[in-house]
Design goal:
alpha/beta, 6-stranded mixed sheet, 5 domains, 14 strands, single chain
């Protein structure tokens, strides 16, 4: 049976450690002899030294003890103190020898006093808190009245390391976890991983190892880049979220020291993830800065924006989503032989969704799970549909925390609008469907990066169908629709509105969702003359928003009751403007005809009479719904009497008087 290299190292490392402990045991026996006045036995540790030499010669790699001593710069005396403490855990004879060497049967443990007396090349500085043994917590000093007489104990994690079985310190479990990321790097990310390797390789052996900062919104890509670079350098990558950092400086410094010891012993690199760090939490942000500037081990920091440090050099790489071509290659690779049979579905997916390589793998796995067990009638079409829906789901999580997702229920048949407005909605849908061909294949994207966003302004009074039209687009294009809550976006604090808007647009980019900004005039009003700092920053907010709307690769829909309130520069950047008129009698009649589902029981409804009520479509829906509840409570079909009661309630809410011309003959 062939013995593995790892097993050989473990076995020989155990022999080496046993021989080193035997030498310390001999030193204790000599101290006992001196304490008791007995003659010392000459050459009693020669056998142990010979065994140590033979074990060292047989090792395929340096023993753990010597690696640890070199890593932390231990002197020969400090090395022996560490072995003295290790012997207490590994050799049952040590406790009795410690008691005998100190002349006290109660002191069955090592102390600094014993070490100074029994071990060669003793020096007092080994006791100092800043010396390696105590600074790196290699040993722990127990309770006692005197430092030199207090019990000493080896740290458990260090003991296992000496035995050749290193593991992550249990005090770091739950805060730090090993990171193993599978997957190939796309070419643009492979370049960044190679640059990271080159950066650290050039700084190897120096005291100025730079922090590597990976910036941008491509969170999954950052992990893969960091993992690939560490694998190339033979380092073990661990990840920690910035949210688990203790804000108290004392606790944080203890954590930093504990991690640095772990990193030094096990060649570990820390990936500190700050992508979701709330900038409004100054305590946590200060903890991140302190860790970056005080830790001296290899460190990779991820964040959406660049961070500044002063005490430690930082090298920053911007990590972007894979390019459209790279995403296309990943899709084709993952789908394999199924890709050509999807009838252009891959191009549509690349055009609409901007996904990382791990996300594309997850999408394909989820899409397969969406297919029914029996073979569908049209497997290619069904699989393409499942892929599209899985992409939508994968792109949702970040945006769900920032905006309200609306499940599009309205269809073209539900929308009552004049033909010119309906034609513009069809054009918006056509722009979304054909943008890959126009921008990429026909080369418009190469001419200019600005103005590629598809934006629309819906203008009209409340209830005229603006939100319903957005739902219709969402249904037609099979895209998620999100309503932006302006109360969460607009902030009185300078710069916060832009940050909130950036989070919304960045989150939406992945899935190209339809963003619906209701009452846009509250946010996108006219830029004012600068009279004070508030005016200046308000104008900056509007300018920033104009840039994002122009660059957003999805659809941005803005609704307003007052077109005149919007900034003219903003209107110039809007691609489509749809005027939603107040419905006339014919349009109101059509709305009434379509208002009730086929399963709703009705009796004696007169659409021509109902159309005389001069209200918008949204109010008609409220009246119809309220009347349905009245009819259900009366256990009968919806009649004109129910609609009359509901109309009176709705108009009272609007403070609108009902005239005989509107409701005459309803009952």
């Amino acid at each position: 049976m062939t013995t593995s290299k790892t097993t050989t190292w473990l076995e020989v490392n155990q022999r080496y450690l046993s021989a080193a402990l035997a030498i310390i045991c001999s030193a204790l026996e000599r101290q006992v002899a001196r304490f008791q006045g007995s003659p010392e036995i000459e050459g009693q540790c020669e056998g142990a030294e010979q065994a140590l030499h033979e074990a060292a010669h047989a090792m395929p790699a340096p023993p753990a003890l010597e690696t640890l001593c070199t890593t932390f710069g231990l002197s020969p005396f400090e090395r022996d103190v560490l072995l003295l403490c290790a012997g207490m855990e590994l050799d049952s004879t040590f406790s009795a020898l410690c008691a005998a060497a100190q002349g006290d049967p109660r002191r069955t443990y090592p102390t600094f006093s014993l070490a100074l007396a029994a071990l060669p090349e003793a020096h007092w500085s080994a006791l100092a808190p800043a010396a390696p043994l105590r600074h790196w917590r290699l040993i722990e000093v127990g309770p006692g009245d005197m430092l030199t007489l207090s019990p000493l104990r080896i740290d458990e994690c260090v003991l296992h390391y000496l035995a050749g079985m290193p593991y992550l310190d249990e005090r770091l479990v739950g805060l730090v976890e090993p990171l193993r990321v599978a997957g190939d790097l796309v070419p643009s990310h492979r370049v960044l991983a190679e640059r990271l390797v080159a950066t650290w390789s050039r700084a190897a052996g120096t005291s100025a190892l730079p922090v590597v900062q990976l910036c941008g919104d491509e969170v999954a890509g950052k992990r893969v880049i960091a993992a690939a670079a560490c694998a190339a350098l033979g380092l073990n990558l661990c990840v920690m979220s910035a949210h688990v950092l203790p804000p108290a400086p004392g606790e944080l410094d203890a954590l930093i020291r504990l991690w640095e010891r772990e990193a030094a012993m096990s060649a570990r690199v820390l990936l500190l993830e700050c992508d979701e760090l709330d900038t409004a939490d100054p305590g946590r942000a200060a903890a991140v800065t302190r860790l970056i500037e005080h830790a001296r081990s290899a460190l990779i920091v991820t964040s959406r924006e660049r961070r500044r440090t002063w005490r430690r050099p930082v090298v920053t790489f911007d990590v972007r989503k894979p390019t459209a071509g790279e995403q296309r290659t990943v899709w084709q690779s993952v789908l394999g032989a199924a890709a050509p049979s999807l009838n252009g579905a891959v191009e549509a997916l690349v055009s609409q969704f901007s996904l990382s390589e791990p996300t594309i793998h997850a999408v394909c796995t989820e899409a397969l799970g969406r297919l029914p067990p029996p073979p569908p009638p049209n497997p290619s079409a069904d699989f393409a549909s499942a892929l599209w829906d899985a992409c939508r789901v994968q792109a949702r999580p970040r945006l769900d925390d920032l905006a309200q997702r609306i499940e599009p229920a309205a269809t073209c048949e539900d929308l009552v609008l004049p033909e010119p407005q309906r034609q513009i909605l069809r054009e918006i849908a056509a722009h979304v469907r054909q943008r890959a061909r126009v921008y990429e294949t026909w080369g418009f994207a190469a001419k200019a990066a600005r103005g590629l966003g598809i934006s629309a302004l819906f203008v009209g009074a409340s209830g005229t169908g603006k939100t319903m039209a957005a739902e219709v687009l969402g249904n037609e294009l099979r895209l998620d629709l999100y309503r932006i809550d302006l109360s969460q976006v607009v902030s009185k604090y300078i710069g916060e509105t832009e940050k909130n808007l950036r989070r919304v647009f960045d989150a939406a980019e992945q899935g190209g969702a339809i963003l619906l900004f209701d009452e846009a005039d509250a946010l996108f009003g006219k830029r004012s003359e600068v009279k004070d700092s508030h005016d200046r920053y308000a104008n900056i907010e509007i300018s920033y928003l104009l840039q994002r709307v122009e660059a957003y690769r999805g659809v941005a829909i803005l609704t307003t009751n007052m077109k005149s309130a919007l900034d003219t520069a903003f209107l110039r950047r809007i691609r489509f403007v749809v005027q939603f008129p107040f419905p006339d009698a014919a349009q109101r009649a059509e709305i009434w005809r379509r208002i009730y589902p086929p399963s709703t029981p009705t009796e004696g409804l007169d659409v021509s009479k109902l159309a005389r009520l001069n209200v918008a479509g949204g109010n008609i829906r409220n009246i119809a719904l309220n009347a349905a509840f009245l009819a259900a409570d009366a256990e009968g079909p919806v009649r004109m009497t129910h609609l009359l009661r509901a109309a009176r309630s709705e108009c009272a809410k609007l403070e609108k008087p009902l005239t005989e011309a509107e409701i005459g003959g309803w009952v």
